């Protein structure tokens, strides 16, 4: 190489990863790095680029001046993408960009991407940008995409407000496709749908029903009754769980009024009392008569409301039905009067008599043999039936049942030993 003034010099040899930039003094450069892949702002760093290699100084003889020393400089090629993303030395292409539920890739995807290439996304309908992650990702030296996070989130329906009630969200948020459950405070009832769903239509979200309301539970007066009254009868409206009590007026005749029904009523729901109002009236039941039996309670000429009578049957009869019975509000005995049924006695094989509902044990007879004592009994079926089938292996019915008075069946079973 020939310098100005005819002096000859030799071109310096730079390292393998640099190129010759000429002769100059070392400099300090301001380097602006690209956007950080994690979404941070670009930064400026004052960086002294790698110093020039140590080469011997060369003499130059510029015209009309003396000799001076100069220093050759070598320019270095620096990958700013690598500086920005950290030290990544592995190289490789990236394949398909990542798929996201909340975002769609802009443009047409390529078969492969070079390290440092970036692709961009946009939020899907029903989603909004979170500003927490970028709407892009780039190919790293290792052949992977970074970042790979959802940058958009689902739109939410407006938070419903229910005075005198509460809103419960099982999924924590009111995003579309999620439910909101509504409940009212004590003394209030829900008017409207209890469960609402946040729905998506196009890019808009909305509740599928109107927001319900919590209304105060009120009951109108339960009403007046003949020959009686209730407490707080001057009021027209009662609140939830308030109580009224009915009572009967004194009678003008020889018989007192009986309160038939519930005396205490509670406001249990919107416009609903716990029961219908009672009645105040004279109730009298005639003395009960039981054929083949008698009353064991004190007998009177007339019985009043809810008076009780118990019975027993004469000897040779058994009681069938309810015992005791009560004088009801319609001047009749409730429940239905019982009856006395004659006991039936049948001769069994051993010559003994047994009564309905009783049993005894005896030995087997005929062609059946058993070391066990068998039982005989008298039962009252609801209708005439065939003999019961043997209910254990090896048992036989020794004779068919005899259908007797009142359809009473009698049979004996013995176990045959083989």
UniProtKB/TrEMBL annotation:
Superkingdom as given in the UniProt entry: Eukaryota
Biased composition (Polar residues): 1-12
Renumbered residue ranges of the record's region Disordered: 1-21
Domain Sushi: 92-154, 155-216, 217-282, 283-342
Keyword terms of this UniProt record: Disulfide bond, Glycoprotein, Repeat, Signal, Sushi
Disulphide bond pairs: 313-340
Keyword Mitochondrion: no
Name of protein: CD46 molecule
Plastid in keyword set: no
Native organism: Molossus molossus
Matches recorded under InterPro entries: Compl-Cell_Adhes-Reg (IPR050350), Sushi/SCR/CCP_sf (IPR035976), Sushi_SCR_CCP_dom (IPR000436)
